Amino acid sequence: MPEPVTEMKQMVALEYAVRPSPLTLDYLGKLRAGRIVGHRCPECELVYVPPRGFCQICVVPTQTPEHEVAIADRGTVTSFTVVDPIQYHGQTEREVYALASILLDGASGTLGQQRIADVPLEQVRMGLRVEAVWIPEAERKSDLRDQGAMLGGSIRHWRPSGEPDTPLSAFQEHIV
What we know:
By secondary structure, the chain is mainly β.
């Protein structure tokens, strides 16, 4: 009797179209100009980054310019993971790296899947203060398929800012 098939190699490609909302296009345009913006709910004052157009708690619109607030390109690592890339056909990652959730100064929620660099992996930790490393403006991408957790191909990665760590009590509700 022949051995059962337990594994097959198959080359697969997937193409998809991204249809961004006008709100998303405005947000990405501001990122390409070097600014991170959020929208503040007029009732509970939560600040959403990226803007969503409404407060998810109060269910009120936040789409007008008076809801927009500038957000710092600095924040705190609230959680992280170290990724050791599995090698497969087409995989370009070869080195181990860290991805983190970052609570930006002035925002009410975290941005997930943000690459941490310019620091040894054993020094990445919860509470680490980080700052954005912006891609030079002329090189910023406009390809909507490469958003990097909605940072629009404008921020290369995050690095330690040199500031003292944020105490756990200041971000513990944002740990995922």
